[in-house]
Amino acid sequence: MFDIPLQVLLGQITIGLVNGCFYAILSLGLALIFGLLNVINFAHGALYMLGAFGVYLAMQKLGVNYWWSLLLVPAVIGAFGALIERLLLRRLMGLDHLYGLLLTFGLALVLEGIFRDIYGSAGLPYPTPPELRGLIDLGFMRLPIYRVWIVGASLVVCFATWFLIERTRLGSYLRAGTENAKMVQALGINVPLMVTFVYALGAGLAAFAGVLAAPIYQVQPLMGSNILIVTFAVVVIGGLGSTAGAIATGLALGVIEGLSKVFYPEVSSTIVFVVMAIVLLVRPAGLFGREA
Fold this sequence. Notes:
The chain has helices at residues 6-37, 44-62, 66-87, 97-119, 145-167, 169-179, 181-186, 191-213, 223-238, 243-263, 271-282; strands at residues 135-137, 142-144. By secondary structure, the protein is an all-alpha fold. 45% of the residues are buried.
């Protein structure tokens, strides 16, 4: 039925895997914040945008290279996320989820508006690091080295975050704090500090994805809002609050999106939402979520 060359098919799978890495990192940050804090964080796309602008401004204004920015920018944006949680979101604890959604949505609009007024809507280029330029011949396609780096770095960061939350004592404290904060605090654990740490970690993951994206996509104020809706769909499909679900679903949907461009290009921009609708009909809690 489909006469598709194998090289084209494998090439789209590879490109889809790269896009899936961005979905995985961003949805992992969203899943962490919702799963442990019960906050629907609409500012996540703006934090991703801040990460891209952070690496751009670090180079232009301070002369900081890509590798230092990869460490410093997520840390700075993570600290900014901690301020957001301490000064704004903490005041909404115990209230309906809608208040947190509206607050983070408004914050995203403010941040995007500030950067759009200063830098305009046109994209700003960020050069690929010299060490990561060039191509790798895979036989069926020539893949830029930088995209290979994105896949490797994303998988390492995603696995490290999953391990931290699911397999360490700190992660068990975090999960217990969301189930019964008073009991955990009675054991001498600073639950408010853990809440701040989780939001900062989610913000740092978004900024890390922004730094990785800067050499591929043009740095511009609306880059976060363009990917945020797809990221929310990934989180819903994987299961709200599931870290493993966010990672696996992000990677899988990136590949599915890439394959759809080969077999049926007209649905490539909506295939994620089609999958979301099907999953919600069959399993409303998501593929990895727990039924209420």
